[in-house]
Prior knowledge:
Number of domains of chain A: 1
Number of strands of chain A: 0
Low-confidence stretches of chain B: none
Order of helices and strands of chain A: HHHHHHHHH
Low-confidence stretches of chain A: none
Radius of gyration of chain B: 19 Å
Largest sheet of chain A: none
Order of helices and strands of chain B: HHHHHHHHEEHHH
Strand order of the largest sheet of chain B: 1-2
Largest sheet of chain B: 2 strands, antiparallel
Helix content of chain A: over 70%
Strand content of chain B: under 5%
Shape of chain A: globular
Helix content of chain B: over 70%
Mean pLDDT of chain A: 84
Number of domains of chain B: 1
Shape of chain B: globular
Radius of gyration of chain A: 17 Å
Oligomer: heterodimer
Mean pLDDT of chain B: 84
Amino acid sequence: MESLSPWVIFFAAIFTGNILLVYFLGMCSFLSVSKRINTALGLGLAVTFVLTITSALNYVVYRMVLQPLGIEYLRYIVFIVVIAATVQLLELFIERYSEVLYINLGIFLPLITVNCAILGVSLFMVIRDYTFIQSVLFGAGSGLGWLLAILAMAGIRERLNEQRIPPALRGPGITLIITGIMAMAFIGFSGMVQIQ
Amino acid sequence: MTNSKVAEVIRDDLWKNNPVTVQILGICSTLAVTNIFLNTLVMGLGLTFVTSFSALTISLLRNIIPPRVRMMVQTLVIASFVVIVDIVLKAYVPNISKALGPYVGLIITNCIIMGRMEAFASSNKPGIAFLDGVTSGIGYAWVLLVIAFFRELLGFGTILGTPVLDPVMRGLGYSEGWVQWAFMIMAPGGFFMLALFIWVTNSVTAGKAVRTKK
């Protein structure tokens, strides 16, 4: 994997390998928080932020601690602890230093620990054998890709309120169908760059 | 543990309050692993194992876990069971373990498990909590299996790896046989399948509600 330019990974993570639309990660919060553009933007930014930091931290922990000690199988436990700790620290930090940021991002932070996109990116990073720079850009790109998807969805759903939808399809049903259509559009990017 | 409570738990988890179709939890893995039936079966079993034993553990510890660190303890308990599942899969079914990739690890953040721990196991006795874990797991698994069945059938034209639609199409006189419907195997197919499934179950439930009202 070392041969791939980190920027290729970055853009591939946003478009062709969108963490949400292609790998289905972070669906829970995607479905429940995509009703308004403002909240979607806040959560998306928080996810991007946390993803970038945790992918760097988890890379260091995995290569410097788990691998030398030969205990890679403990990575699930270690990764989730690192993620939870990062989120908690970030919350304290943001609360202390920036009130504006806290109001906009802070309320979403507790939601992020259980967002599978965060853990998923760390696990993909290990499986695909990325280097440090590649991992960080993969994290950032995945976050931006997620942000893009949830923003687009929130925009569509705000307009969807006035439409007549079959009652049984309202809510999650129609959201999933729209997500499917969005996923089809994103698959169209896959001719441009491909990573696997 | 009374019989009516047992029946209620089972009915809720399997249909009335199904984790996937009604509560819309655990969608990530629902979609990611459902293009091949066998992988889905393994995933469903793994999740049922993790949910039931985490529920048992949390329920046994419910009086000694400090409320403040509750989430952290729950996550760690779940993660430990996931490590067990991961190691067992790697040892006995390496191919499937490879195909499932990161999604085994992602059982940890599957909201179904966290939800059951919070809503049920942390406030109920071990026996019923274990049962709730098992039935939630099965409630999740059966929905997945239905979706996987259709995605594999339409996508690859196979059932459990055996070609089914190919001979049928040839029998009907189409010489090229079954042309793989790649769309079903890819991501959008998963989204549409789940949406259809939710549509159907919601319609059935709504129909029932109207009939009982009359």
